Structures are given as structure tokens and as C-alpha cells.
Amino acid sequence: MIVHVRASASSFEYPVCFTSDVFSPMNRDLLHLIVRREPDVRHRVAAIVDRGALAAQPELNLHIERYARCHNDVLDLVAPPIVQGGGESMKDDATLPARLQAYVHALELDRRSVLLVVGGASLLDLVGFAASMVQSAPRVVRVPTTTLAQAGPAVLPKSAINAFGAKDFLCTFRPPYAVVCDRRFVETQKTREKVFGLVQAVRAALLWDAELFGWIVSHAHRLASGERDAVAELLQQSAALHADLAATAPHEDIYGPEGPLAFGAWSADRIELHTERRIRQGEALAVGIALDTTLGALHGTNTEAEREAIHRLLERLGLRLWHDTLGNVDSEGRLLLLDGLSERSFGRSPRVPLLQGIGNGVTPRELREDVLREAITRLAHRDAHRAHAFALA
Question: Where is the 3-dehydroquinate synthase C-terminal domain (predicted)?
């Protein structure tokens, strides 16, 4: 006997809120999001805070506790906030998910409880992944604290950790219960860190919104200096684009090796790995975008004029388009970047998603090593020319 299981396509809905001073007792945005389905129930809440966010705001945990006390008729903070280190290297630690799951178990958090995660994209990934593996998984409320996270990753339903030397190899697609983007956290970031994170927004504009790309070009000086209102506006626009993507495209189309989020990222991931995570994710992504738009010009998917406009924008934002690891080769002279493509292609001929012109998404193209070498050579020459110009200035 054969029994056929037919399930309708899964659907999900969750709010993304932009606010300021989220843990001010007078700000009820977070409160409303937590209690929106059961307004008359006292909700059990546990909080995990990124060490970097706490360093920027030393009283952050106290503010979370104060917020819960002020609204204790519907919020029950079951334990003091715990602090966890952030950064991409944290996602390499295979023991952390189990430790976080043990914490959820010890606090007896269930599917009506709330796990509040306050931190950067890596911590949001780790906690979301760990929580999603629990049978009665608590509701995860994300409070992203960096431009990198607020620009897109915090809005998407995916949570992932690294494994077997591959970035985000293990992942789940249990969406958050809510996302709260507080501009005050971003304002505590150093200007360079802000700009590195904004590369996510630049990529979103390149993929889906030519008008937004033009806006970024027009406001590049304000963005490069970390000007508050310009950064806030760009983050909201980028988050909205990522939210639309999550709502309308199947997971395999979004996250696959030939999908839009692989644009610029396939090489950026290798750069991060080859530098042992010493380079920031946004820095590496800028180099990856520069490489893929150069490849696009060689393949004819984007024009030379578009490539130049994109490269000039990245440079105006103070970003480098080159990293020495691009030229790394193995003992036989083969580019190590191709290893990243092989991992993503799972044995098939390596293909990369290339820009179909600004704002028009990507199209996959098979990549030959000689074309990749040519693209890398062009970036190296551009970087050397700029370095020489700076030396003469």
C-alpha cells in the first residue's frame, strides 16, 4: 500500500518593526509585538545579548530588565540576560547550539515563550538555528544591532551555522516571531563598521532596485561618513527588499548556489575563510561584488559602464575592491577560489550568479578558470593603480 502525503505550501507572517530606544519603558513597540497573539497572557521571556552590543551600551542588560519590570503584567523575564560572544567565528563552534538548547531546556521555554536575541547577524543566526531544533521551539524575537544585520540577514527566515569548513552549511528556515530594528544600536557603531554593513544594502539595490542604487550614489558622501538619517533610510529600504524576497521566492531560489544571495558571496565566503575570519563580512562582500560585476562585464550580463559605476560607488564608500587572497593558488597553480564554487555546485560544473544589469536580478553562468583569472587580473591592476595614485598624492 502507498499512502501519498500532500501538504500545501508552508506560509508564514512576521512583523519587521523600525523604532528607536526599543528598551525605553515608554516604547511599547516590542511589547506589542510579543503579546500580539495573546494580549491577556503573561509571556515568559529569556534574553541573549551579544557581547559587542553590551560593550557599546554597558547598561543594555539593565535596560532589558527594567523594561520587563515596567511591563511585568504581560512580560515575565525568567532569568537575567545572558551574554554570548558574536562574530562569524562563533558559528564555527559546533558545541554552542547544544549549549543554547540546554539553556532553553533548563528554563523550560516552550512554544509560547519568547527568546529575545539582541545582537549582530552571527548571534541571530546561531540562536535561531539552535532554537529551531527544539521540539517545542520558543518564539524567537530578533533585535539586530548592526548595519549588516539590519540591512537584510535579520529579516530573512533562514538561520545557519558553519560546518565542515563551509559557511552556513547547516541551516533551518523557521522564521522569527518578530524583528525589531532599533536605529540607536547602529548609531553606537564605529563609522567603518557601519559602512561595511551597508554593503548588504548596496547588493540589495544592485539585485532588485535600480532607483535605490541611484539614491545610494547620490548620497554616497553621507553614507560614507555614517550620517544617521541617511544610514537609517538605506537600512529600511534594504530590509524591505529582503522582506519582499522572503515573502515571494521559494527558499531554493533564494539560497541556492545560483540564487541572488550568492551574488558576491561565493567569493566573499572564501576570502573570510582564507583570512581565518580576520576580514569583516561586509569588507569581503564588497570585494565579491567587485569580482562578480567584473565577471559580468566579461560575460556581457552587465555593461562596462555599470561595472564602473558600481566600482566607483564602492570606492566612494571607502571600500577596497581587492584582497590578496583572490590570487591564492594551490600547488598545481589552480585558483583556490574555485574550491568555493565546487562546494556550492556539489559536483556539477561551477556556475556563478551574475548581475543582469542593475536592478534586474541575476543570471547563472558557467565559469571558466581563464575568465576568472582575467577578472582577478583586472581588479589587481585597478587596486595597484589606486595605490600608486594615493602614494603620489
Answer: 197-324
- Rounded to the nearest 10 degrees, how much is the dihedral formed by the CA atoms of 135, 139, 144, 149? 50
279 Cβ neighbours under 8 A, 6+ residues apart: 271, 272, 323
Centre a 10 Å sphere on the Cβ of residue 139 and count the other Cβ atoms it contains: 22
* 10-49 residue pLDDT tens: 578 899 999 999 999 999 999 999 999 999 999 999 999 9
Grid coordinates belonging to 278: 580576520
d(CA 195, CA 283): 9
pLDDT in tens, 106-151: 999 999 999 999 999 999 999 999 999 999 999 999 999 999 999 9
3-state DSSP call for residue 377? helix
Distance between CA atoms of 240 and 294, rounded to whole angstroms?
27
Phi and psi angles of residue 352, each rounded to the nearest 5 degrees, phi first: -125, 145
Identify any residues that bridge with 365 across adjacent strands, giving them in sequence order.
352
3-state secondary structure 92-105: HCCCHHHHHHHHHH
- Round to whole Å and give the CA distance between 100 and 92: 15
Is residue 284 within 8 Å of residue 203, measured between CB atoms?
A: no
Name beta bridge partners: 163: 166
pLDDT above 50 (res 307): yes
Give the span between the Cα atoms of 174 and 162, in whole angstroms: 17
CA dist 96 and 160 (Å) reads 12
Q: What is the DSSP letter of 262?
A: G
Query: Contact at 8 Å (CB) between 228 and 187?
Result: yes
Give the tens place of pLDDT for each residue, 170-213: 999 999 999 999 999 999 999 999 999 999 999 999 999 999 99
DSSP string of 100-168? HHHHHHHTT--TTSEEEEEE-HHHHHHHHHHHHTSTTPPEEEEEE-SHHHHTTGGGSS-EEEEETTEEE
Q: Cell numbers of 75, please?
A: 512580560
What percent of the chain is modeled with pLDDT above 70? 93
pTM of the model: 0.92
DSSP per-residue string spanning 54-98 = HHHSTTHHHHHHHHHHHTTTTEEE-SPPEEE--SGGGGG-TTHHH
Provide the total of helices (H) and of strands (E) in the chain, helices listed first. 17, 11
